[in-house]
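tool_call: predict_structure(chain=1)
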Amino acid sequence: MPGAVKTEAVVLRSMRYGEADRILHLYTPARGRVGAIAKGVRRARSRFGGRLEPFFRLRIELHEGRGELLTVTGAQTVDGHARLREDARALDAAARACDAVGRLFETSEPHPGVFNLLCRKLSLLDEQAGEGQASAIGRAGALAFRLKLLLAAGLAPQLGSCASCGEREELVGFSGAAGGVVCGACEAASFPFGEQAYRFMTEAVGAPLHEAPDAPDPALGQVERAIAATLEHHANLRLMPAAGRSH
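tool_result:
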């Protein structure tokens, strides 16, 4: 029903609208992804300041009318992730994480676990911004995050046995169409999937984000291809690469 809505939210995206407004894509624990308009936010004296920018975690007040967009009526910062905003690599990683959540979970269906996962990812990026050893910022951290999103979406690849015949030995390939790893006898429509890539995927799914495993670039390339194939075949979705070329 129309009325006031109070919720926590992460700003996934913020776009200019009209002379002084912004359209926001928000991710919330109980209402999934929602769209909202912040009226007058780009004026110099706006009471919202800069807190409606991407990657802010907020306690936000919204008015729900009859239109598709809710209206922002109040916002308090829970975490602005200030360090993240001063590190180009962390900023890029945050944008890719928010894009993945917004596109894979684009409906109003609640996924509180996804909200908490995104908040944890942004916090890790903020903690590691500017550090030489920034595991959450790199490709491995990004892929571990995406694997957890697949799990939350019910799209986790089958890893324990061949997705085609159930064989548990000689799992040498990955097939997006089949939905996971495949054995030598079923590898016709698959691509090579090595032991290091397999180990990374199995460990990353079960480990906390801050304990995400690492792997050599060739193995991470196979993991990224496996994630992309899974999304393309089972969600008809293509995401931007998990990390930029400089990573």
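agent: The helical segments are 88-104, 112-128, 139-152, 195-206, 217-234. Proceeding to next step.
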